[in-house]
Amino acid sequence: MGEGSLRRSDDRLVAGVCGGLAGWLGWSPFRVRLLYVLVSVLSAAFPGILVYLVLWFLMPGPDDD
């Protein structure tokens, strides 16, 4: 899929989760952020905040080795 391991990005608005996913998928960070917001808002069954927080704690930072 993308380049290397899945980790948070320096290209961040909050914690770099969407930027990290974008880099891993090879997509633009804007596209991933837009998709995340749309899915979170349009789907009552998708706990967007909870998923974001879990990924924030599980994904290593950009400088973590």
In short:
With 65 residues, the protein is mainly α. The protein contains 3 helices and no strands. Helix 1 (17-25) packs across helix 2.
Query: Approximately how much beta-strand content do the residues carry?
Result: under 5%
Helical stretch tally: 3
Question: What would you report as the Rg, rounded to the nearest angstrom?
Answer: 12 Å
Report the span from N to C terminus.
21 Å
Question: Into which percent range does the helicity of residues fall?
Answer: 40-55%
Tally of DSSP β-strands: 0
Helix/strand order, N-terminal first: HHH
**Biggest sheet character:** none
Which secondary-structure class do the elements indicate?
mainly alpha
- Tell me, what's the shape? globular
List low-pLDDT spans: none
* pLDDT averaged residue by residue: 80
